[in-house]
Specification:
It is built from 4 helices and no strands. The protein has a single domain, classed as Four Helix Bundle (Hemerythrin (Met), subunit A) (Up-down Bundle), CATH 1.20.120. By secondary structure, the protein is mostly helical. Helix content is 79%, strand content 0%. Helix 2 runs antiparallel to helix 3. The longest helix is centred in the last third of the chain and has 37 residues. The two termini are 42 Å apart. The protein is elongated and about 50 Å long.
Length: 144
């Protein structure tokens, strides 16, 4: 990852955390719904997850996030899995949808942790890189 200023990485981390928090609120709210409401809203939730991941990917790309390629692959697998079952869930298989949504929430939580850790490491690197060493001063009078 390229060195980031402390304010840039802090702002990025805050934006990603806020977006993810809002998504988790939606996931938990949907999980509490009765089966018929859950099934009816499942496709919209998949779309919300997809939008959240797209936003996260743009931010991570702008920050030259280490591991972006792997994250893109994981996101693609998650979304493909969710899209694959939309028809079944809309057809009434709430159990399958709930299981998939729980697994998605687990993966998204793991992503949140690894993203936060990477941003913290980038911030630490930015602090180390910005601390320039001052040249040694010669004592007055031209001493050694």
């Amino acid at each position: 990852m390229l060195p980031l200023s402390s304010s840039t990485s802090h702002t990025a981390a805050a934006a990603l955390r806020h977006a993810r928090k809002l998504l988790f609120v939606r996931i938990h709210a949907l999980s509490a719904e009765p089966d018929d409401a859950f099934c009816a809203a499942f496709q919209a939730m998949v779309a919300a997850i997809e939008a959240d991941l797209a936003h996260e990917e743009k931010v991570m790309e702008a920050l030259a996030f280490d591991g972006l390629h792997e994250r893109l692959a994981e996101n693609a697998l998650l979304l493909a899995s969710l899209h694959r079952i939309v028809t079944q869930v809309e057809g009434g298989d709430a159990g399958l949808g709930r299981m998939a949504l729980d697994a998605a929430a687990d993966l998204l939580s793991l992503h949140r942790l690894t993203t936060d850790l990477a941003l913290v490491m980038a911030r630490a690197g930015a602090h180390c890189g910005s601390a320039k060493r001052k040249p040694d001063k010669k004592p007055p009078g031209g001493g050694l």
